[in-house]
Amino acid sequence: MQQDQDIIANIRRGDKQAYRLLVERYQQKVFQTCMGFVHHEEDAADLTQEIFIKVYEKLDAFRGKAAFSTWLYRMAVNHSLNAVRKNKLKAYFRGSDGSDVPDQVDEDQEADGQLRQKEDRALLRKALGALPASQRKAFVLSYYQDLSNKEVAEVLQLKLKAVESLLYRARQNMKSALIRMSDEKG
Questions:
Q1: Per-residue model confidence as pLDDT tens digits over 124-151
Q2: Using an 8 Å Cβ cutoff, are 80 and 39 in contact?
Q3: Which residues of the chain are modeled with pLDDT < 50?
Q4: Signed CA dihedral, 146, 138, 144, 131: sign only
Q5: pTM of the model
Q6: Which domains does the chain possess?
């Protein structure tokens, strides 16, 4: 498998196939990162496309001091947060009716089980959206992208202890919010 640095060098020399390889390698991870912030497939797909255009335009700015994936994730997180802040997306959260939420439910599962899953996902999205931005960034990278705490620290340009603290507070805040929402729901 070709190393990222080699691919980047080829892109800088004008090799369009190399750029395609880079996109194919990271597209799903960038999409998942965006989904962690916008919770809507079409918006996440649009953001992913915008991010890869931005990557192509700014590739000369990548100096290789950190791993390419770290630079890319940082760009994905920042771009996603900017899009949410500027309200450029159709909706930050979609309703729990399921029309815009992908359901990965077995067909033979009962309707009330499907409804429960939709409600649970909606509660999780709401709790995640209520987190402060710094906690949400760390949480998305850790749990959606399965990055180690060290990798999250690199992406967010924080010390390892700060990331551990953010993740601890994020889990506590998520837990409290979910309990509160569950109690309100009855």
A1: 888 888 899 899 999 989 988 888 999 9
A2: no
A3: 88-109
A4: positive
A5: 0.66
A6: 1-93 (1.10.1740.10), 111-186 (1.10.10.10)
